[in-house]
Design goal:
Layout lengths: L1 H14 L6 H6 L5 E7 L9 E6 L5 E6 L5 E5 L2 E4 L8 E4 L1 H6 L9 E4 L6 E8 L6 E2 L17 E2 H10 L7 H10 L7
Antiparallel strand pairs: 1-8, 2-7, 3-6, 3-8, 4-5, 4-7, 9-10
Helix pairs in contact: 4-5
Length: 188
């Protein structure tokens, strides 16, 4: 999974006009997480979500879903099902990578629905930088007429915010910035 994520990072760097190894170097000492999700069936699946609408606070998410389906992405004000394929991964850009790209790449709003009759499972690999590494875009991604969209922060700061103070959603970074600038108050 690490090799796959580095290959994807190389493509992302090239697409941004950076040296192909830029993000690989940034993430090589990173702290990635692998998780298995299980969504039990629910007789009235319209009343529950496996996970509500959110974007991942991580940098990159590599997902393999079973054949049950249930992953949906939000695009153009509509939810679209992501058809499961045994021979493919789903790749999501997360909030940390959105900040690293100065907003040139957007994090992906998505949700997981449960099935009425069958358990749904997925295997997820979240790519994160080392917890104390400063997350900031390279100067090459910030032109003289374009402002920086996010302050410098560490992965541990964003992780703390999403675990203790804020449920990750489409506005995670917008909620994070005032908390971070205010000195990370515990009563936020």
């Amino acid at each position: 999974m690490k090799e796959l994520s580095f290959a994807i990072m190389e493509l992302l760097a090239i697409s941004l006009g950076l040296d192909r190894l830029y993000f690989k170097t940034f993430f090589e000492d990173g702290e990635s997480i692998m998780r298995c999700n299980s969504y039990p069936p629910c007789n009235n699946s319209s009343l529950t979500l496996g996970t509500g609408p959110h974007s991942d606070p991580t940098s990159l998410t590599v997902l393999h879903q079973d054949q049950v389906g249930g992953l949906e992405v939000y695009l153009d004000n509509k939810w679209f099902a992501v058809r499961p394929r045994l021979d493919a991964f789903v790749i999501n850009i997360g909030d940390t990578f959105m900040a690293l790209s100065n907003g040139k790449y957007k994090s992906c709003l998505h949700r997981a629905l449960v099935n009425r009759e069958v358990e749904r499972k997925s295997l997820v690999y979240f790519v994160n930088p080392k917890e104390d590494k400063t997350v900031k875009p390279t100067k090459k991604l910030c032109s003289s007429d374009e402002e920086r969209k996010y302050p410098d922060f560490t992965w541990s700061d964003l992780y703390e915010f999403t675990q203790k103070h804020y449920r990750a959603d489409v506005s995670t970074l917008q909620g994070f910035i005032p908390w971070f600038i205010a000195g990370k108050p515990s009563n936020y």
